[in-house]
Design a protein that fits this description.
Layout (H helix, E strand, L loop, with lengths): L1 H6 L3 H24 L11 H18 L3 H12 L13 H20 L6 H10 L4 H15 L4 H6 L1 H9 L4 H20 L3 H18 L2 H13 L6 H19 L7 H7 L2
């Protein structure tokens, strides 16, 4: 549910869902303290859900530009070592959320205009590669909204970004990957690099279709249309083929209707 709210950019609902997860996890945590021998049947330890709920809430507040509230949430999962009853093989979760907290603090810093942290943030992303795509989303957003100069960042992280773009490894990271490509395309468009904008857009469009990510698809289509007059014939042809493929997929669910029958009828 939280991942769906994130994908749909429904930040208000994401706040509600995060609060519900935190409340339910806190109740179970206190119950577990009273009966330590009785284990919960959840797929992950309670410490994970406690941290994850606050992380999601902090992200939602950040997207809503309520940065003070976002920092309050970050503080709550920066150090989860206070939780009792954590098994030895679960303590890595404490370190994971500490890493997430550092990255999200940099995000809020940048969004609040503290651009001096950018070089530190780039080093953080080099050290924690799994945070790279989410980090680039933040950096690109700042570049677009606040005219932040990031060409040196793109050069410094070029090797890491090439590796990520060649292998988005699962559906969760791929959703971030699609958003990253959308923002990269928007950034290139703003810079007047229409070829680069089209290339990033078309890759992201393919990804959004595979993931059935309608929110991303709508944004990418609207963006492509905004600079369509500037793109090459090759890029426009790929774009048309993408749309044709999508229409064919939709018409499979319509009885007696296919793309070929529509196309022949229009001649």
């Amino acid at each position: 549910m939280l991942k769906l709210a994130f994908s749909n950019e429904d930040w208000t609902n994401m706040l509600k869902l995060a609060d519900r997860l935190y409340e339910e996890s806190a109740i179970l945590y206190h119950y577990q303290l009273q009966q330590p021998r009785k284990k919960t049947s959840h797929s992950r330890p309670l410490i994970y859900y406690i941290g994850y709920s606050q992380l999601c809430k902090g992200v939602a507040y950040q997207k809503l530009k309520q940065y003070k509230l976002s920092r309050d949430c970050i503080e709550k999962y920066t150090d989860l070592s206070w939780m009792r009853g954590v098994e030895e093989n679960e303590k890595y979760i404490i370190d994971d959320f500490r890493i997430f907290a550092s990255g999200n603090t940099y995000t809020v810093d940048l969004m609040e205009g503290r651009h001096s942290v950018l070089s530190e943030y780039v080093q953080y992303l080099k050290q924690h590669r799994r945070e790279l795509v989410a980090g680039m989303i933040t950096i690109l957003e700042c570049a677009i909204k606040k005219d932040l100069y990031i060409e040196w960042v793109l050069a410094d992280l070029s090797k890491e970004l090439e590796e990520i773009e060649s292998n988005p490894d699962n559906s969760t990271s791929a959703r971030y990957y699609t958003e990253y490509l959308y923002l990269f395309s928007l950034y290139k468009y703003k810079q007047g690099d229409y070829r680069g904008a089209a290339e990033k857009n078309l890759v992201a469009l393919t990804s959004s279709v595979k993931l059935e990510d309608n929110t991303a698809f709508k944004k990418l289509t609207a963006l492509f249309e905004s600079f369509r007059e500037f793109v090459s014939t090759d890029h426009e042809q790929v774009y048309k083929l993408q749309l044709k493929s999508i229409l064919e997929g939709v018409l499979k669910n319509e009885k007696g209707i296919s793309f070929s029958t529509i196309h022949s009828g229009s001649n």
